[in-house]
Design goal:
Elements (H helix, E strand, L loop, with lengths): L3 H12 L2 H8 L3 H15 L4 E4 L2 E4 L1 H29 L4 E6 L8 H10 L3 E2 L4 E2 L1 H9 L5 E5 L7 E16 L9 E2 L8 E5 L4 H12 L5 E6 L2 H9 L4 E5 L8 E6 L4 E9 L5 H12 L2
Parallel strand pairs: 3-4, 3-5, 3-6, 8-12, 9-10, 9-11
Antiparallel strand pairs: 1-2, 6-13, 7-11, 7-12, 7-13
């Protein structure tokens, strides 16, 4: 008896209608009817009484429904337990701060993960502080973050540096420049990554050092959104230099700007420090 057919039976039982159940299951009514007939043949009894008011479950049908729910629940628990046992050997977890996946060498990381069964694969991005905290607390083994770690228990290796640039639209007063200073954007409308990104705080602090408060009119969660807003002349954008240029948007170097540095961080007392150092070496050699 195919346990996948249990779900088909359960939906028919709940809907009391073959057509409605078939629509939910993305099956044809004819195909679903064959599945129900096959179950009845295996059970040796009718599971539904077919009448003008639709399908009504027999006593056998009611029992089959209850027991099939128990079987499915037990199977789910079994597979969950098996998966949990299989995950015990996957101890090396990676974490990514917002924006880092766009800049690091994904192919090398993915290859490294595929080669080593002890690595838990996850590509979820979280805030910089969340990743720092997770590595410090030992919740994850290795993190990609923005900025050099200050915690003495953490070792940090710079993996990638991106210049921070100014994106302007064609026709803007700065369009013909190759390089600008932060003072040049004092009265401009600025588009930035949102407050979850480390660069937001860096931009605000840098502008304050130049004795002005930036007029941030848009905060986004994805780099391409900066480009779209700049292209439509909502403002000019500040971002690491990883966006493509076109005839309507270009990047200008910011004089004396800092670089957007991505560090690989891990605890120096980590039991998997050798694995962490192997990952760093793989990325540094690219």
């Amino acid at each position: 008896m195919n346990t996948k057919n249990f779900k088909c039976f359960q939906v028919v039982y709940e809907e009391r209608n073959i057509t409605a159940a078939a629509n939910k299951l993305f099956l044809s009514p004819q195909g679903l009817s064959k599945i129900i007939k096959s179950l009845e043949d295996e059970c040796g009894t009718a599971l539904f009484v077919r009448g003008k008011d639709g399908l009504q479950p027999t006593e056998s049908g009611k029992l089959f429904y209850d027991k099939s729910k128990e079987v499915i629940r037990d199977l789910n628990e079994m597979f969950t337990s098996i998966e949990a046992l299989g995950q015990k050997d996957k101890r090396f977890k990676l974490g990514f701060a917002l924006g880092t996946i766009r800049s690091v060498d994904i192919s090398s990381i993915h290859e490294f993960m595929e080669e080593r069964p002890e690595i838990v694969g996850s590509w979820q991005e979280r805030s910089n502080e969340t990743v720092y905290r997770a590595v410090t607390n030992g919740d994850i083994s290795f993190g990609f973050v923005v900025g050099k770690p200050k915690d003495k228990c953490l070792k940090g290796v710079c993996i990638k540096s991106n210049e921070v640039v100014l994106y302007v639209y064609k026709g803007h007063r700065l369009w013909d420049k190759e390089e600008v200073s932060l003072s040049d954007i004092k009265n401009e409308k600025i588009i930035s990554m949102n407050k979850n990104f480390h660069i937001y705080e860096d931009i605000v602090n840098a502008c304050r050092l130049h004795e002005f408060q930036p007029d941030i009119v848009a905060m986004v969660g994805e780099g391409e959104s900066i480009k779209q807003l700049v292209k439509n002349k909502v403002g000019i954008g500040i971002s690491p230099d990883f966006l493509s240029e076109d005839k309507n948007v270009k990047a200008l170097k910011i004089r004396d700007a800092y670089t957007w540095d991505i560090y690989g961080i891990f605890r120096e007392d980590s039991p998997d420090i050798q694995l962490a150092e192997e990952l760093v070496a793989r990325l540094k050699n690219k």
